[in-house]
């Protein structure tokens, strides 16, 4: 593992890799992962930096999105979710990994992202730890902001849950502002696409059960894949939508969530994403891309 100090987007960061894909993570705020690239530069600009985008939080000040990849605690609640984190994170280098941690005094939750690079992937473990005095019902929520000139791929499972295939095997989850007529939403079969259209009006968000085990974002010559496990028979936030995508005129977010848990004081929960980045032919069909990267 190689770890080095760099600056990106005006932030003090660490560059982390093991000879393959490289991530750049903030140490002066967040934590965030601001960049994912291959040694030849593939992926540059796919993760979006948003230094000027903020959320106003009554009684809490201003939350700076910063961009890239972040860890939130679900379910979404502005008074608990959008808490400013413009302070240095706690950094611990471990054998083969780097731990980036931020304690939230207002919620009692410590948010930690552990980055473990491999020669062909980046493993991100997202940990929520209850450092408060009361139980907390929550779930890890891993959100990646991407440049708004690509498209997200959300695969829908076609596998039946009963022997005859008579029962429903999934749901499409919608947010109140989502419209089926939105040009950014393509209900293709079996992969739903959510497009980024720079400068587009309004917003759209959909979610589904992540039984297939991955979501992706395609932009130019790069395909970014996030793999994560689905646990059958447990409750997930947002009507069991463990795989979600949000698109507006400024960015597209590809999101995965872990199961809901009741965290006792001192307890922790971890949600793992395994990232891979692939150089692809920008003119290739979806089917050819999926076959080329082993997802067909």
Q: How would you describe what is shown here?
A:
This protein is mainly beta and 296 residues long. A hairpin with a 2-residue loop joins strand 18 (214-219) and strand 19 (222-227). The two termini are 31 Å apart. It is globular. The strands form four sheets. It has a ten-stranded antiparallel beta sheet with strand order 8-9-10-11-23-19-18-13-16-15, with no helix packed on it. It has a single domain (2-292), classed as Beta-galactosidase, Chain A, domain 5, CATH 2.70.98.10. The protein is built from three helices and 23 strands.
Shape: globular
Q: Let me know the largest β-sheet.
A: 10 strands, antiparallel
CATH class: Mainly Beta
Count helical runs: 3
Uncertain stretches of 5 or more adjacent residues: none
- What fraction, in percent, of the residue positions are helical? under 10%
> What's the number of structural domains?
1
Neighbour order of strands in the largest sheet = 8-9-10-11-23-19-18-13-16-15
CATH topology call? Beta-galactosidase, Chain A, domain 5
Distance between the termini: 31 Å
Strand percentage = over 45%
How many whole angstroms does the radius of gyration measure?
Answer: 18 Å
Look at the structure and give the mean pLDDT.
97
Q: Give the second-level CATH assignment, the architecture.
A: Distorted Sandwich
Number of strands: 23
Helix and strand composition category:
mainly beta
Helix and strand element order: EEEEEEEHEEEEEEEEEEEEHEEEEH
């Amino acid at each position: 593992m190689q770890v080095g100090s760099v600056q990106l987007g005006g932030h003090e960061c660490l560059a982390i890799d093991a000879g393959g894909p490289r991530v750049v993570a903030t140490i002066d705020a967040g934590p965030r992962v601001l960049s994912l690239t291959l040694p030849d530069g593939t992926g540059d600009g796919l993760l979006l930096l948003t230094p000027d985008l903020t959320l106003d939080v009554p009684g809490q000040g201003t939350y700076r999105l910063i961009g890239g990849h972040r860890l939130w605690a679900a379910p979404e609640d502005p008074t608990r979710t959008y808490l400013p984190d413009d302070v240095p994170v706690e950094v611990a280098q471990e054998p083969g990994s780097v731990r980036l941690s931020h304690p939230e005094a207002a919620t009692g939750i410590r948010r930690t992202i552990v980055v473990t690079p491999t020669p062909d992937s980046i493993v991100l473990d997202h940990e929520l730890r209850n450092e408060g005095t009361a139980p907390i019902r929550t779930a890890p929520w891993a959100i990646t902001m991407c440049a708004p000139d690509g498209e997200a791929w959300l695969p829908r499972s076609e596998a039946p849950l009963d022997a005859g295939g008579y029962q429903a095997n999934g749901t499409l989850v919608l947010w109140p502002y989502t419209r089926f007529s939105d040009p950014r939403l393509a209900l293709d079969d079996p992969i739903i696409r959510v497009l980024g259209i720079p400068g587009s009006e309004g917003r759209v968000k959909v979610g589904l059960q992540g039984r297939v085990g991955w979501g992706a974002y395609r932009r130019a010559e790069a395909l970014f894949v996030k793999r994560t496990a689905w646990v059958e028979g447990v409750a997930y936030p947002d009507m069991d939508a463990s795989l979600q995508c949000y698109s507006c005129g400024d960015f597209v977010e590809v999101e995965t969530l872990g199961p809901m848990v009741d965290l006792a004081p001192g307890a922790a929960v971890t949600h793992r994403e395994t990232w891979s980045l692939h150089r692809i032919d920008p003119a290739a069909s979806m089917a050819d891309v999926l076959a080329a990267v082993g997802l067909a």
